[in-house]
Amino acid sequence: MVNESMLKLGTNRSCIRELFEYGLRQAAIVGKENVFDYSLGNPSIPAPPEVNETLVDIVRNTDSLAVHGYTPAPGLPAAREAIAAELSERYGVRIRGANIFLTCGAAPALIAVIRALNMGGSEIVAIAPFFPEYRPFAESNGAKLVVVPADVPSFQINWPELEARLNERTQAVIVNTPNNPSGVIYTRETLERLAALLEKKSAEVGHPIFLIADEPYRELAYDGAEVPFIPTVYPNTIVCYSYSKSLSLPGERIGYICVPDWVEDSATVFAAIAGAARASGHVCAPALQQRVVALCAHSRPNVRAYDENRALLYEQLSAFGYDCVKPNGAFYMFVKAPGGDSQAFSDRAKEKNLLIVPGGDFGVPEYFRICTCVSKDMILRSLPAFKALIEE
Ligand code: PLP
Hints:
- By secondary structure, the chain is an alpha/beta fold.
- The chain folds into two domains: 4-47 and 302-391, Aspartate Aminotransferase, domain 1 (Alpha-Beta Complex), CATH 3.90.1150; 50-296, Aspartate Aminotransferase, domain 2 (3-Layer(aba) Sandwich), CATH 3.40.640.10.
- 43% of the residues lie in helices and 14% in strands.
- The chain has a seven-stranded mixed β-sheet with strand order 2-8-7-6-5-3-4, sandwiched between helices.
- Helix 13 (304-320) runs parallel beside helix 15.
- It is globular.
- The termini are far apart.
- 45% of the residues are buried.
- The mean pLDDT is 96.
- The structure holds pyridoxal-5'-phosphate.
């Protein structure tokens, strides 16, 4: 009666959502202060003040019909130009408004790009640990997701495993740096080596292998770590950006795709992405948020709270004996599960109302993820539970 794979996607809850909702139920029983919820990557710092002020100002002072009306499918010219100007200035490149397609966040951006590139059964390569939604994004659009095992413990790239998975069916490799769930940023050296490999393989297979840069965490970097702009390292890069985390606007659904002019057959790729967005019903991103972005393209988050949480959790958990991957970006930390089975460890933690996400869905079952976008108070209250678990 209905599509089986869609039914499965709609009924099999994501493990993160399950944990989050379990936390809400437990809070009603044991009290909110006794539940330590590290499950969901929801920003815990407010949007920069100028973002809210701009939003209010637009609603107050612009004609209502104009504010809430349809925009052109790829977005308002003012928003496209503002994003292009910000990227050009920041990275010393020439990006034009015509290279930008506004989307409802990174998720529909990724779907549009995968859909546009898929030639029917094409392979899209993801590097573990990876955002689990890549799988439905690829598979529901007729592409195949091919996973490269993680490079443990550095969480850069496992080169022989990647190279072994590139072939004539490979249309793209997705990279997500700063990474969810590891918090690791790919170094410039890693990206240059990746570019050289993809250039070599593209020449071998006779068509470009694109890089899809999934970048919701571009602005979240610590200790002065560099987040290279990948299109300047590998020309055939398509960027999927989101303001969900960078401006703490996840519910507003706003982001963009950038296809620079120097991408091979850039105009054709852009047009296919526009077609894929159209076929998915994802054109004309939220108009009010487009207007906000047009005026706040230069806004940056104050990441101090994430940075402090990261330092606190890394120090404390390491002192208890946990083997933590040191995060220098995003707002996650990846930790090796004592005993090696993160699902079993997460189940044990749940008994102490400590909600941590097992790494199986990210492609690394020996590690678990904790979100550092939480309150410092909660971290302090949760430390005895972390200590007890490793001592048990
Ligand atoms: N990609 C990664 C790696 C993410 O972590 C997320 C959200 O958590 C997304 C994409 C989707 O972001 P958006 O909310 O902009 O759709």
